[in-house]
Amino acid sequence: LLVTSYTAVAFIAGIATGTCGVFVWNRWLRRIRTADWVTPDILTRRRWVKGIVTSVGDADNFRLYHTPGIGWGLFRTVPTLAKDLKDQTIHVRIAGVDAPEVGGGHFGRPSQPHAEESLFWLKNRLEGRLVYCQLIRKDQYGRVVAVPLVPRPFLPSFLGKRWASPLALEMLRAGTVTTYRQAGAEYGPWGRETFLRIEAKARTTRQGMWKYGCVGETPAEYKRR
User: Fold this and answer.
1) Rounded to an integer, what distance in angstroms lies between the CA atom of residue 70 and that of residue 28?
2) How many distinct structural domains can be found in the chain?
3) Distance (Å, whole) CA 125 – CA 152
4) How confident is the model at residue 22 (pLDDT cuts 50, 70, 90)?
5) Which positions are catalytic?
6) CB-based burial of residue 40 (10 Å sphere; 0-12 exposed, 13-18 middle, 19+ buried)?
7) CATH number of domain containing 33
8) Rounded to whole angstroms, how far apart are CA atoms 9 and 117?
9) pLDDT tens-digit profile of 67-91?
10) Which keywords fit this entry according to its UniProt record (predicted)?
């Protein structure tokens, strides 16, 4: 009877350990390879992920190589070749902002004024950097709309997200984007009014695209046209 009891306890403990292991793997260690791997449950929980930005396509989106767990840069490496990155990155659309459209892309037209400058700013800020992203929803192009935070220099990694800099607000201050005002827009914990206030200050101080005081056509107007 005693042996049977020990066997039952060991069996139950084994199941519990296995279940816990699966949960830990799925929650913290399993790598999200692409936007298709982002499940409705992940979006419902607005899960935070961290990763390395491998490329910037337009001035309001980028590719993120998810790096869960520990050991990255030591015994785990992020690929650098395009062939190795194929189907291995999450296409992230930055929530709450809208950048001047770069030529080609979805519309097949010439670039908007200041589009190249905005793209250069984002490339310089993000490529090769660690970024934290809160995943919110998917858009009509299959990208994941997210709130990105950029860790501040010289902080230990465990403080990275807590004291990181909100990327969207940085972009608004630099005058590289406008506030995204369409239905369903997301602004993170700061809210729409904060976005509009920072954009207005950039316009007043003539930052980035506002250097001449106004823009001929906003990104939203360009896309509607």
Assistant:
1) 10
2) 1
3) 12
4) very low
5) 93, 101, 143
6) exposed
7) 2.40.50.90
8) 65
9) 999 989 888 999 999 999 999 999 9
10) Calcium, Endonuclease, Hydrolase, Membrane, Nuclease, Transmembrane, Transmembrane helix
CA distance linking residue 39 with residue 43, whole number of Å: 7
Q: Supply φ then ψ for residue 150, to 5 degrees.
A: -105, 120
Q: Is residue 127 part of a domain?
A: yes
CB 156 within 8 A of CB 137: no
User: Residue 154: inside a domain, yes or no?
Assistant: yes
Q: Tokens 């950048």 map to which residue?
A: 99
Q: Mean pLDDT across the stretch 28-45?
A: 93
Q: Is residue 11 part of a domain?
A: no
Q: Measured between alpha carbons, how far is residue 154 from residues 22, 34, 82, 159 in Å?
A: 34, 30, 30, 10
Is 50 exceeded by the pLDDT of residue 23? Answer: no
C-beta contacts of 107-113 below 8 A and 24+ residues apart: 107/222, 107/223, 112/217, 112/219, 112/222, 113/209, 113/215, 113/216
Reported as a single tens digit per residue, the pLDDT across 87-135 is 999 999 999 999 998 876 555 678 888 899 999 999 999 999 999 999 9
Q: What is the pLDDT of residues 121-132, one digit of tens each?
A: 999 999 999 999
Angle formed by the axes of helices 192-204 and 167-174, nearest 10°: 30
Beta strands in the chain (DSSP E): 48-58, 61-66, 90-94, 97-98, 130-138, 144-150, 165-166, 178-179
The confidence score (pLDDT) of residue 159 equals 72
pTM to 2 decimal places: 0.84
What is the rounded average pLDDT of the residues 160-186?
93
